[in-house]
Amino acid sequence: MSRKRNTDHETAIIASKRLFWQRGYAATSTREIEEKTGLTRFTIQKTYGGKRGLFLDTLDNYLENAETHILRDAETGDLEDLACWFERLASNDQIPRIDEMGCLVLNSIDEFEREDSEVNERIERYFKFIEKRFVNILSTAVAAKNAQPNLDIQSLAVVLIDLLLGVQMVFRARTEDSFARSHARAAATLIRSWKIAD
To answer: Domain named HTH tetR-type: which ranges (predicted)?
Structure first.
């Protein structure tokens, strides 16, 4: 007799998100999903369409949380806040988390082929969201005369995405924390150079 489902959707998504985040999609077995989420194999297939469907729902949840919390005060247009945000990526409490799990979106880039339209759609959503936040910060800073008026806002937003990706990759590849921090500080220094001197 099959076991009854003993967990709700939100709890299952949170548990599966941590599992996929730590282990990756390919390395995570259905048995592990059952053990960590409380879902039965039947429920995984019936409700989510299998392991892949559960992963996509998990990635959606990750994106929704990112859109709620990452640079949520972007409308203030404070370049110092943005610079500090980059520096905090290399803080003592953030580095161990990044070292353990990284970014679920960036991990997905490594795991899935470019031809995977469903995953790529979510990756593009993440980058477009981040780019929009950067554009909002820079635009507001220029309008408030807190940033140099001749900034190429769209191009610099793309540069910031590249910096974010680079910093994240350095965190995972580093041999010493100081190496990662130097890259985060360099990004912050660049951002501060766009401010109008007092």
So the answer is: 6-66
pLDDT in tens, 57-78: 999 999 999 999 888 876 777 8
Location of structure tokens 């806040």: 81
**What residues contact residue 147 under an 8 Å CB cut-off, 6+ apart?**
77, 79, 138, 141, 194, 195, 196
Cβ–Cβ < 8 Å for 168, 98: yes
Packed helices 117-143 and 153-173: angle between N→C axes, nearest 10 degrees: 120
pLDDT for 132-156, tens place per residue?
999 999 999 999 999 999 999 999 9
- Three-class SS state of 195: strand
Last-in-domain residue among 59, 89, 107: 59
**CA 156/CA 153 separation, integer angstroms:** 5
Residues 75 and 46 in one domain: no
Helix axes 51-69, 41-48, angle to 10 degrees: 70
* Six token digits for residue 62: 């990750």
Beta bridge partners of 195: 147
pTM of the predicted model as reported, rounded to 2 decimal places:
0.84
The answer on 81 and 28 residing in a single domain is no
